[in-house]
Amino acid sequence: MLSLKPSVLFSLDKIASRAIAIAGPVFILIAVVLISLAVITYYSVVFPYAFVWDKDYIWSKVNYYLGLIWSIYLTVCIAFHYYMSITTKPGGILIGGTGDPNDDPVLHDIFVELEEYQEFPKTCKKCHLPKPERAHHCSVCKRCVLRFDHHCPWIANCVGHYNHRYFLLFMTYLTIACAYFTILGWQPFLLSLEFDSEWEWWMPRPYVALTFLLAVSIGVALGGMCLWHYYLVVSAQTTVEFYNNRYAKSEAKRRGEAFVNPYSFGIVNNFKQFFNVGSNYPIYTIFLPIPIPPSGNGKVWQKNATQRYSTVQVDEYSEDDE
Length: 322
Prior knowledge:
Elements: H1 6-50, H2 58-87, H3 107-115, E1 122-123, E2 130-131, E3 136-138, E4 143-145, E5 150-152, E6 157-159, H4 164-193, H5 205-234, H6 239-254, H7 267-275, H8 311-317
Antiparallel strand pairs: 1-2, 3-4, 5-6
Subcellular location: Membrane
Keywords: Acyltransferase, Lipoprotein, Membrane, Palmitate, Transferase, Transmembrane, Transmembrane helix
Transmembrane segments: 20-44, 64-84, 166-187, 207-228
């Protein structure tokens, strides 16, 4: 079997990371075009087909307005959370605890802050800056990101401490919208395939058919990814930590020990901490398209008292970050 040298693999990784960074705006443009096409198709074909206005029947008016309000709500939530996912910085090492990009502490202050919680604060081998717990180095952005989950080309940004909430809610509302579009749009989709029948809408048939198929495929793919991220949320893990913890679990099992995620405080508390609801913000803010900051500064994290397996061993395993 052909094997590549480490130097070749490193070069390929650098090329791939550079390509992802350059193509970021293109991915955003594609996403905006596809979402816009779906919105136009929905309001010009699907909505008029599903919600018929009958001036002589009051319940048709009520149904029409309820459908319109719900449709506008989904559209606004998708647009808002996608915009916030793109424009919100995920959180870097040189960003202060307030989250203000202009709050730029010196390295000495960062080490002092971390030393209060970590006996030996780590330093990233790639960017040579203090490395808080749960932070990882992104090879695309070339910097360490607080509570790094992954780099997403569809937002041309890392998913990290300060924008993970917006990213997950964007996926949630888009998945719901795809399901809603599929439920209401299957009949217009079938009509769009009957080329010998009358077509009363200005939107061409192929666009309606294409949009329906996109809604189904994107809804299934994005729905699976959305469920995966909710599992990570309620288990207090990021994507990187999931694989690190899986390794740690196998090591603990081999030693006859039980691994406990030090950052997990139960499903409900993990959910509240991620969305920053309960203590700081009401839970209904999850359903509102408004900016809500995360809880904490992303550099230091409270740990549960039941930890039985050393997180140092987990960190050693994950020394080579994404």
